[in-house]
TrEMBL record:
Keywords: Cytoplasm, Nucleus, Repeat, Translation regulation. GO terms for cellular component: cytosol. GO terms for molecular function: ribosome binding. SUPFAM superfamilies: ARM repeat. The keyword Cytoplasm applies. This is MI domain-containing protein. Belongs to the PDCD4 family. Signal peptide: none annotated. The lineage of its organism: Eukaryota, Viridiplantae, Streptophyta, Embryophyta, Tracheophyta. It is found in: Cytoplasm. It comes from Oryza barthii.
Length: 635
């Protein structure tokens, strides 16, 4: 069945796959640094690992052994070997193979390798049928099971079919998986029970047990016991329901339940009990049903946003892979409402106290107490009052207001609503503050530099003001135009950051040279063998998310200076991007800055331009950069 190394097949034998996008993507997984001899060695070790797993049924040990081989570009072969061996065994081994793939997915074997492994299985089905007469049906079940377990996308069936010769058994596998298994009623339970994997528990029973585990956890607070119970269910394909139910329970209970639930999910993620795919699927299911949940929990959307931000900042949720959370319908602020008037009075007191103490944590606590329902209208009022109060004071308070706005982590749409309130009142405020245009310009520009709002938000605000909509005052429109022009200037970020003295610390500026030195030292320390989590924490503790493009620039330059021989720093960038620590905007800005200095870098690294183009391509494939980012170095 394994007569030749997959990557050593003559080119002519891959002709059908050349027309297939999936095959093209798979071909990119090959690493030019891995020799064919090392591949043959990997094959022998992978075969041993598979045989040992079927003897011991030890998922953790198998994961460690596979990880220790340190050749992730050939994990697709492990997928193929595991399934092909299981096909010749009893149902017990088939179920064990399915469970192992689900357990390794994401943590040890990444999605493209699983995809490629099943693609290879489909291509070799004619050979597999020689030793296993019912290979078509068995492999169809494996494909369907992988889709049910969420380790293979449903689109695999349609994308892989054009890659296969017409009339081959691989094509029959894909047709049977779709028509005979995935399209029938209750297909999930049928497929899961095919090899005896979940006969002891139905979906309804699983949901009931999940509910019991969560209730007991909230009552006792024992994370270890809860994780053991989740693992004991042996329904890794259904862990998304645990995530959804846990988050829902946190929102319904309120109080300290949210913190306990997030701690549990983080531990389950760190220990590999719930994989990244299942966590993402659980959050997406809740996003889909959040409108219904708001009937029982009015601020459900707000609470969900808060939990997404916390999970993303802790590194166990990739927020960029989630569905967009549609904002709640905007409600007009009733200016003469008694509750609103009371909130405004409290807000002024909070802001005045903050300008005296500089205690951001106290502001966050006070604001949470006053705006416990996370009202968008109240957030907008706070933004307006904060900036209005700052504009009546000195540069110190203006800087403090910008720092506070960046630290609060309000949803961008709430900040934009607050800016609209400022624009609406700008004409009247100009009577008392002749410099209001300059002040608003700097606040608008600073909010973009601090990534409180996106550049597109500013552009949309200008369009609305220019169309003469409510709030389209000439003063506000002029400030918006000035802000966009200021942001488009060279080195605008540094000038904007220094406009009010660089913070409430009393320093003469942000001292960006010191920050650059710190970034350089932490990157050097990590590259010399440091811990990746510690490096991420150090980057986070810099407290300058608007300057993370410098991390990207320095890391890329260091990688290129070593001519790609040591890519630990590339791994650090991948980790920072996956955690949401480096945003797409900062990643793009970092690459743009490197593009601007490649000519100078070429004096020391002659092939700098060629290397940079390669890294741009890799970044695009990893989803770090938009496809429109230029491949070539700008002149």
């Amino acid at each position: 069945m394994e007569s030749r190394p997959d990557d050593l097949v003559p080119p002519a034998m891959h002709k059908p796959a050349i027309q297939c996008a999936a095959a093209e993507d798979a071909s990119l997984l090959r690493s030019p640094t891995v020799s064919s001899e090392e591949f043959m060695q990997f094959k022998r070790k992978a075969t041993t690992i598979v045989e040992e797993y079927f003897s011991t049924d030890d998922v953790a040990a198998t994961a460690n052994e596979l990880r220790e081989l340190r050749v992730p570009c050939y994990h697709y072969y492990f997928v193929k070997k595991l399934v092909s061996v299981a096909m010749d065994r009893h149902d017990r081994e088939k179920e064990m193979a399915a469970v192992l793939l689900s357990s390794l997915y994401g943590d040890v074997i990444d999605r493209p390798q699983v995809y490629k492994g099943f693609g290879k299985l489909a291509e070799s089905c004619d050979d597999l049928s020689v030793d296993t007469p019912d290979a078509v049906d068995i492999l169809a079940v494996f494909v369907a099971r992988a889709i049910i377990d969420d380790i293979l996308p449903p689109a695999f069936l349609a994308k892989q079919l054009p890659c296969l010769p017409e009339g081959c058994k691989g094509a029959e596998v894909l047709h049977r998986a779709e028509k005979s298994y995935l399209s029938v009623p209750h297909h999930g339970e049928i497929i899961l029970q095919r090899w005896g994997g979940s006969k002891s528990i139905t979906v309804e029973e699983a949901k009931a047990k999940i509910a019991d585990i969560l209730e007991e956890y909230l009552a006792a607070g024992d994370i270890g016991e809860a994780c053991r119970c989740i693992r004991g269910l042996k329904i890794s394909f259904f862990h998304h329901d645990i995530v959804k139910r846990a988050l829902t329970l946190a929102m319904e209970r309120g109080g300290g339940a949210e913190g306990h639930i997030l701690d549990l999910l983080k531990s389950a993620s760190d220990e590999g009990i719930i994989n990244e795919s299942q966590i993402t699927k659980g959050f997406n299911r809740l996003i889909d049903s959040v409108d219904d949940l708001t009937l029982d929990v009015p601020n459900a959307r707000r609470l969900l946003k808060s939990m997404i931000l916390k999970a993303s900042s802790e590194g166990w949720l990739c927020a960029s892979s989630l569905k967009p959370l549609v904002p709640e319908p905007k409600k007009a602020v009733v200016e003469d409402d008694a509750a609103v008037r009371q909130f405004k009075a409290k807000t002024l007191s909070i802001i005045k106290e903050y300008f005296l103490t500089g205690d951001i944590i106290e502001v966050m606590s006070s604001l949470e107490a006053e705006n416990y329902a996370c009202s968008s209208s109240y957030n907008a009022i706070f933004v307006k009052k904060l900036i209005t109060s700052a504009m009546d004071r000195k540069s110190r308070e203006k800087e403090m207001a910008s720092v506070l706005l960046s630290s609060l982590g309000m949803p961008p749409e709430d900040v934009v609503s607050g800016f609209h309130l400022l624009i609406e009142s700008a004409e009247d405020a100009a009577l008392d503050n002749p410099a209001i245009v300059e002040d608003l310009t700097m606040f608008f520009a600073r909010s973009v530099v601090d990534e409180v709002i996106a550049p597109s938000n500013l552009e949309k605000m200008e369009e609305e003001a220019g169309r003469g909509k409510p709030g389209g005052s000439s003063t506000g429109l002029l400030a918006l135009r000035n802000a966009r022009a200021l942001l488009g200037a060279k080195l605008s970020a540094e000038r904007i950051l220094r406009c009010w003295g660089g913070g409430a610390t009393g320093k003469a500026g942000w001292e960006l040279d010191d920050v650059k030195d710190k970034i350089g030292r932490l990157l050097q320390e990590y590259d010399c063998g440091g811990d990746i989590r510690e490096a991420c924490q150090c980057i986070k503790e810099l407290g300058m998310p608007f300057f993370h493009h410098e991390v990207v620039k320095k890391a890329l330059v260091a990688i290129m200076e070593k001519r790609g021989k040591d890519e630990r720093l590339w791994g650090l960038l991948a980790e920072c991007y996956g955690r949401g620590l480096i945003t797409p905007n900062q990643m793009t800005k970092g690459f743009e800055r490197v593009a601007g200095c490649v000519d100078d870098l070429a004096l020391d690294v002659p092939d700098a331009g060629k290397q940079f183009c390669c890294y741009v391509e890799r970044a695009k494939k990893g989803g770090w950069l938009d496809a429109s980012f230029p491949n070539g170095v700008r002149s």
